[in-house]
Amino acid sequence: RKRVVVFISGSGSNMMALAQACQDPDFPAEIACVISDKATAGGLAKAQEFGIPTLVFERKTYADKAEHEASILAALSEIAPDLICLAGYMRLISGDFIAPYEGRIINIHPSLLPLFPGLHTHERAIESGTKITGCTVHFVTEGMDEGPVIGQAAVPVLAGDDANTLAARVLTVEHQLYPLALKLLAEGKVRMEGGKAIRGDDAYDAAQQ
Ligand code: GAR
């Protein structure tokens, strides 16, 4: 089983969806550690209840972004994860941080990228008048929410939606998509090559289910 570190900043519901998938002995990954940049992240207690080790690296306890990232990288090199999943980790990570894990870091974003990258995603989706939104799992590259797409899931935007009702609808499909995407990556059925996500036939079939 591939060893995964999950990065969170908040409630950690996607992290828990991954943790629940990893409980199946046939799932090809397990969570070695959860890392948060916020000591107050609700997901930390949930991970601990699940018996998953946690580490906190508060940005404000470091002089700058480079020191913060260096400290996290040092911890990661001891854990030696195969894969990293960003799950509501609300920080842009640098190219230097990504380099040693290139092709092995994935992120979930609550829109159908390339639409609505960045913050306030649901507000902007509603404002745009689109009738469909969703979520995207993609490889992490240096640009924000720009890496090659592994998979997407769509939900309707309904009349009367506000950012909270839409976020909740999108989250339900995030919790399905993220374990599926992690499974594809852990099984080697998707990989990043030449700036693209390359999927085998098996991977394509699985993503259609
Ligand atoms: C999720 O909707 C995730 O897609 C989003 O934050 C939420 C975290 O919820 N991520 C981003 O906006 C990243 N730009 P969770 O902590 O309950 O998984």
UniProtKB/TrEMBL annotation:
CDD domains named in the record: FMT_core_GART (cd08645)
Entry-linked SUPFAM superfamilies: Formyltransferase (SSF53328)
E.C. number(s) listed in UniProt: 2.1.2.2
Reactions that this protein is recorded to catalyse: N(1)-(5-phospho-beta-D-ribosyl)glycinamide + (6R)-10-formyltetrahydrofolate = N(2)-formyl-N(1)-(5-phospho-beta-D-ribosyl)glycinamide + (6S)-5,6,7,8-tetrahydrofolate + H(+)
Alphabetic keyword roster: Purine biosynthesis, Transferase
Gene: purN
PANTHER family: PHOSPHORIBOSYLGLYCINAMIDE FORMYLTRANSFERASE
Domain of life, per lineage: Bacteria
Species annotation: Agrobacterium bohemicum
Xref: InterPro entries: Formyl_transf_N, Formyl_transf_N_sf, GART, GART_AS
An MF annotation (GO) of this entry: phosphoribosylglycinamide formyltransferase activity
Keyword Glycosyltransferase appears in the UniProt entry: no
Site (Raises pKa of active site His): D145
GO BP, sorted A to Z: 'de novo' IMP biosynthetic process
Residue numbers binding N(1)-(5-phospho-beta-D-ribosyl)glycinamide: G12, S13, N14
EC class: transferase
Listed name of the protein: Phosphoribosylglycinamide formyltransferase
Domain Formyl transferase N-terminal, residue spans: 2-182
GO CC annotation: cytosol
